[in-house]
Write a structure and sequence with these properties.
The protein is of the alpha+beta class and 276 residues long. 35% of the residues lie in helices and 26% in strands. The protein has a six-stranded mixed β-sheet. Strands 1-8-7 form a three-stranded antiparallel β-sheet, with helices on both faces. Helix 1 packs across helix 2. The structure holds zinc ion (ZN).
Length: 276
């Protein structure tokens, strides 16, 4: 945070997390890049708005053409999912209309969500800024960037937030907007040798006294487990479970996020029947 109380910045590098998600979801090209940017958005949104809550960001394509989901947890694990729609691959957000939905899970499991239309041309950074402005009433400048299919992949971004306590907010904004002109496009910067989030913060706040508040790790991870698989199966109705038992084969269930596969034995399925 700048010592004059005008701005707060959150910067993240998500290279390894994004690469792991892209590979688990078998994404390539622009879709891989968009997934990387969405993951960065989820991490930044959580750290900026709700560090202790789980957040999800969803790009939902119009005409049931599928969706991209990024899921970020307070423990640092982050995962992503491409859910197929009418086509095999995700459409291009630059050409197909889509919405951006931001969601946080409150401690009582209630979901708090807001949705904005992605701007024409599908710029995710702009969509995220629009969301912050409209749904959270927070003036912020955001840049997300990623290079996915390269010798040296990179992904990351930042949120610079104008704080409500800022005095002479308009003048402060003008100075910051001018300064951020060089940081609108950060892909090249992320690939450079000085690409750590702290270096990015130092570059953006150069010459402005500021205080470090907090840092945290993120990583690719998934919270799927055998227990969760069983919980999911337990909500099926008895007839469906009986059908699975009658098929006489252990059930194989794969996690769509990370690809881990779980086996449910017939005895376990029968256990569900007797428990329900
Ligand atoms: Zn999983």
């Amino acid at each position: 945070m700048t010592n004059d109380g005008a701005f707060r910045i959150v910067a993240a590098r998500t290279t390894d997390t994004a690469q792991a998600v892209i590979s688990a979801q078998e994404l390539s090209g622009l879709a891989a890049q968009d997934m990387a940017d969405l993951l960065t958005a989820a991490v930044l949104y959580r750290e900026t708005m709700a560090p202790s809550l789980r957040v999800q960001c969803i790009v939902r394509f119009d005409d049931n053409a599928g969706q991209l989901v990024a899921d970020s947890h307070p423990d640092g694990w982050t995962r992503g999912l491409f859910q197929k729609g009418s086509g095999e691959a995700p459409p291009d957000i630059r050409k197909t209309q889509a919405t951006l939905q931001m969601m946080r899970t409150l401690p009582n499991s209630e979901l708090q969500r807001g949705v904005v239309q992605l701007p024409e041309g599908g710029n995710l950074s702009e969509g995220f800024m629009r969301y912050m402005q409209l749904s959270e009433q927070i003036v912020s400048m955001i840049s997300l960037g990623s290079v996915v299919e390269a010798q040296q992949p990179a992904a990351g971004g930042y949120v610079v937030q104008l704080l409500p306590e800022a005095v002479e907010a308009e003048a402060a904004m003008e100075t910051m907007t001018e300064r951020l002109g060089n940081f609108v496009e950060i892909r090249d910067r992320l690939q450079g040798s000085d690409s750590s989030p702290s270096q990015l913060v130092e570059q953006i706040f150069e010459g402005m006294p500021f205080t470090w508040l907090h840092s945290s790790d993120i990583r690719f991870g998934c919270h799927c487990s055998q227990v969760r698989v069983m919980t999911t199966l337990s909500v099926l109705n008895r007839t469906d479970i009986q059908e699975l038992v009658d098929e006489g084969e252990p059930l194989s269930v794969g996690c769509d996020y990370c690809g881990t596969s779980y086996t449910v034995e017939i005895a376990q399925l029968q256990g569900l029947l007797s428990a329900s």
